[in-house]
């Protein structure tokens, strides 16, 4: 992009000076097509017409240089971003004054070194002189406008590129932060899961070695699933339910009939997505905070309703001496917010605790 700007600046005058010349001739003719100047030029020889052409080109070059120099000086002294209306008025006035001074100096020098013949000088009066200055002023304003338009266009283009780059950087930072946060949230799963199941396994080794072996095999299978999906942000509900089926075996060994888990999900929703290990977290959360005994069984149901998955359990809270950290539910909420920008609904009543999980297409 910088190379294009350098190329444009290098050949800027090659565009502006011919433009100034064409404007000079065009505006002069439009203002007064019956001027004696046109009759005078038509009677000149080819060589003299080239001289007149060369003089007009020099005038156009001076107008262009004065207009461009003034505009660039104003860019440094009073940028457009600060006071655009004031800048526009002052630039127009300064350009007109500068062009008027330069043209008067040029006219004085030209008359001193190359005085026109008396018959030529008699052709032009004060009206023609003022017409000449008016034309030059209009041309200078137009050239200044071209420069200003080019300047503002480049600033707009650079602003758009900078804004696009900032958006790209922000998106990359957001993605990086999201991945880091997801990894951090996923790592919260392991300690609580391992603590409960290794405690059960330790007791089984002494009481029933054969059952301990079966429990260890199921635990390994469940843990392999958790490791395999550690880097997955979303999996199908059918995969999660297969994992839960194996996980329920561990729950049965740990709690027996004290905890009853039922799953009733339609086939239509099993192909939809859910963050991995979400159901395990909710089951662990229900068991952790509620009494589960022969006299007070804990009932956990997993069902679907529309595009939502509902995990519900009856409430019979354990009187903890320490308050709950809420890491399990917070983990699920944050993952849904980061991955899908969706909210997890929680309905906590005196009778039941219900979590509504949106199922997503993937």
SSE topology:
Layout: H1 2-10, H2 12-31, H3 36-43, H4 46-77, H5 84-113, H6 118-121, H7 126-187, H8 189-207, H9 209-228, E1 235-236, H10 237-255, E2 259-264, E3 273-274, H11 278-289, E4 298-305, E5 308-314, H12 327-340, E6 345-348, E7 352-358
Characterise this structure.
With 362 residues, the chain is α+β, with helices and mostly antiparallel strands. Residues 4-8 have low confidence and may be disordered. Helices cover 69% and strands 10% of the residues. A five-stranded mixed sheet has the order 2-4-5-7-6, covered by helices on one side. It has a two-stranded antiparallel sheet with strand order 1-3. Helix 4 packs antiparallel against helix 5 and helix 5 runs antiparallel to helix 7 (126-187).
Features:
362 residues; alpha+beta; 5-stranded mixed β-sheet; two-stranded antiparallel sheet
Question: How does the helix and strand content classify structurally?
Answer: alpha+beta
CA-based shape: rod-shaped
Q: Quick check: average pLDDT?
A: 79
Q: What's the SSE pattern? A: HHHHHHHHHEHEEHEEHEE
User: How large is the share of residues in beta strands?
Assistant: 5-15%
Residues in helix, %: 55-70%
User: How many β-strands, per DSSP?
Assistant: 7
Q: Tell me the Rg in angstroms.
A: 42 Å
How far from one another are the termini?
39 Å
Unreliably modeled segments: 4-8
Largest β-sheet summary: 5 strands, mixed
Going across the biggest sheet, name each strand in turn.
2-4-5-7-6
Given the structure, what is the number of helices?
12
């Amino acid at each position: 992009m910088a190379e294009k700007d350098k190329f444009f600046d290098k050949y800027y005058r090659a565009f502006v000076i011919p433009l100034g010349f064409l404007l000079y001739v065009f505006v002069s003719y439009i203002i007064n097509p019956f001027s004696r100047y046109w009759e005078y030029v038509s009677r000149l020889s080819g060589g003299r017409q080239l001289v007149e052409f060369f003089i007009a080109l020099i005038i156009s070059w001076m107008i262009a240089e004065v207009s461009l120099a003034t505009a660039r000086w104003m860019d440094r002294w009073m940028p457009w971003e600060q006071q655009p209306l004031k800048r526009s008025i002052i630039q127009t006035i300064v350009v007109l004054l500068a062009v008027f001074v330069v043209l008067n100096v040029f006219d004085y020098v030209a008359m001193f070194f190359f005085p026109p013949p008396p018959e030529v000088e008699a052709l032009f009066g004060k009206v023609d002189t003022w017409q000449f200055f008016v034309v030059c002023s209009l041309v200078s304003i137009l050239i200044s406008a071209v420069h200003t338009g080019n300047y503002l266009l480049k600033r707009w283009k650079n602003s758009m590129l900078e804004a696009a780059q900032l958006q790209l950087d922000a998106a990359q930072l957001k993605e990086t932060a999201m991945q880091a946060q997801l990894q951090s949230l996923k790592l919260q799963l392991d300690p609580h899961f391992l603590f409960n199941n290794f405690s059960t396994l330790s007791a089984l080794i002494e009481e029933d070695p054969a059952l301990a072996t079966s429990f260890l095999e199921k635990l390994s299978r469940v843990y392999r699933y958790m490791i395999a999906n550690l880097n997955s942000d979303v999996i199908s509900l059918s995969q999660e339910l297969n994992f839960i089926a194996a996980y329920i075996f561990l729950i049965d060994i740990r709690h027996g009939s004290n905890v009853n888990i039922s799953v009733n999900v339609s086939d239509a929703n099993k192909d939809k997505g859910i963050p991995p290990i979400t159901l395990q977290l909710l089951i662990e959360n229900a068991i952790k905070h509620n009494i589960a005994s022969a006299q007070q069984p804990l009932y956990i149901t997993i069902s679907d309703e529309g595009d939502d998955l509902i995990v519900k359990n009856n409430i019979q809270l354990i009187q903890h001496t320490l308050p709950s950290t809420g890491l399990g539910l917070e983990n699920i909420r944050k993952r849904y917010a980061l991955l899908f920008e969706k909210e997890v609904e929680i309905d906590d009543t005196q009778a039941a605790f219900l979590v509504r999980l949106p199922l997503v297409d993937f």
